[in-house]
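Batch job 17 of 40 flagged for manual review because the log was empty.
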Amino acid sequence: MLTDFGLRAARTTNQDKVNALRWKAPECLQSGSEKSPPTVQSDVYSLGMCIVEAVTHNDPWTSFAGPRLPDVAVKYSLLKKHEFLQRPPAFEDDAQWDLVMKMCAFEPSERIELPEVLESLARFANIESAQATQWGNDWRWNKTQPIDGRIE
């Protein structure tokens, strides 16, 4: 598995186990008989949350204008309200945010498959590489041309 948070948590403190819930798929946060062991699809969800962290430079579910959302509120939003986090301002490109949304669908069966994720990430990397060549070293700051890496 790509990111098995169950195994990671087994080697860490109780506080680390609690904090990891921001990256865990909803089905892995359930309690009792509804709780699911980690799967490839739950890893896809976790990878999506890692992408959120990489783009925003913050833990997932951290408010853009205020404090970090408490873990209990994250769990409530996911499990009771079936709500995902709002699009962070750092996601300026629709195609990249669409990928995260497909990776983090509430139902595992509705999540994009891992090979499609990898293809999309490779496409984004190729586009950014081409833009870097075209625009020079300051390509990341040049927002005059959109990234055309839409997911079908």
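Reviewer: the log was empty due to a logging misconfiguration, but the result itself is present. The two ends are 26 Å apart (CA to CA). Unflagging and moving on to job 18.
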